[in-house]
Amino acid sequence: MGADLPAREPLLRALVDICGPDFARTAGPSDTVAGRLASFVAAPATAAAVADTMRLAAERGLAVIARGSGSKLDWGTPPPGVDLLLDTGRLDGIWHHDAEAGTAEIGTGTTVRAVQAALALRGQRLAVDPPSMTATLGGVLAVNETGPLRYRFGTAADQVISVTYVGRDGEVATSDGEDGRPGIAEIDGVLLSARVRLEPLPAVRRWVSVPVATPRDVQDLVAETLSRRVGPSAVEVDLPAGSRPAAAGHLRVVPPPGPVPSGSATAGHLRVVPSPGSAGQPPAVPSRGSGSAPHGALAVLLEGDPADVAHRAAGLEKTLGRDATISPVAPGWWGRYPFGPDDVALRIAVPAADLQSAVYALRDVTGMPVPIRGSAGRGIVHAVLPGTLAAERVEGILDAVRGVLLARGGRCVAISAPRAISAEIDMASRRDLF
Questions:
Q1: CB 56 within 8 A of CB 14
Q2: Phi and psi at residue 230, in whole multiples of 5°?
Q3: Residue 413: which of 71, 75, 65 has the closest Cα?
Q4: Where are the alpha helices (DSSP H) in 21-111?
Q5: Over the stretch 293-320, which tens digit does the pLDDT of each residue have?
Q6: What distance in Å separates the CA atoms of residue 95 and residue 241, rounded to the nearest whole number?
Q7: Is the pLDDT of residue 181 over 90?
Q8: Angle at the Cα of 383 (from 378 to 385), degrees rounded to 5?
Q9: Backbone phi, psi, residue 235, to 5°
Q10: Are 54 and 167 in contact, with CB atoms under 8 Å apart?
């Protein structure tokens, strides 16, 4: 509706009556969603106020978008419109913490950092570590955002026992999942609070890191790590665009024999193609640990009691070779997204054993270096494409990669992109993020 909203002043007064004079206003330049400027911003402080706001919006036919810190507001399919931004910042705090039961009810406007700081005072934590530094609990749950700890503890949704929310009709409800996971992806409304499971805060953390040059290195190292049964909390990989190609060849999408149906995204398969070299042989590439300087890294997080962690870390360091190191500090890239607001961000999910195939396929389809970062242990990573590509080119890349991953039970979705691209391509739906 935007500037054509009928009776703007009466509507603003009604929002002020609900939220208070300092907590409802006309939207400003920063109050946008996927490039669309909202008309109003309201910040209700209670469940009743949220319910009244949603009822008012339903009566006036307003398109409502909930906003926490706004760090992921542009993720996924752009909304058809936005009239009212409902700010959840006043729905904050740990409303009930049962340390003995290992549960807490937390307002969804609370930042994850604040949650972790408060729980740490009781020797506990919420087992999520979202890369969005300012993320609120509601924002994390809305898109099921989790970081490296997903390897051991699962997704953000896996930590939730139940959620309380206000539907589009203004009714307050609670969702309890039959298997312990409420259907957050199905909720159409504003999350008020979540009752979550807590974990003990580990006494120490150690990162065992080793340089890598290729996706094949990663697969071998992950296999070696898991064979040691060291109980990692996370197994992450960082492969910048400068990482070298495979020594003995690379995986290429090769058309099958015979005619290929026009527009087919699945009419191809992966084959190892030797890299060019003298007499048709692949060029010699120094092996891992040979003194060259790979651009990538694999890092494994170990947590627990000091003596036990020290023992496991030493054993893993020996297993991974002479280039492996142990540190009490995470690598600089750890728990950070490899993309920025001007990039096209892809999320790839594939069985961990097929991750190298997915990475090689993506690089071959794009014809350019593609940075990759994420969980090598789970086969869930983010890849980065330039935001300067044409939307048609991005869509073509997505179609080709999806065709390759389909046979491997994997998938690839675009989670974030500049407005000119996100409006034209098939972006991730909310369900795709769960």
A1: yes
A2: -90, 0
A3: 75
A4: 47-60
A5: 458 999 999 999 999 999 999 999 999 9
A6: 45
A7: no
A8: 170
A9: -135, 105
A10: yes
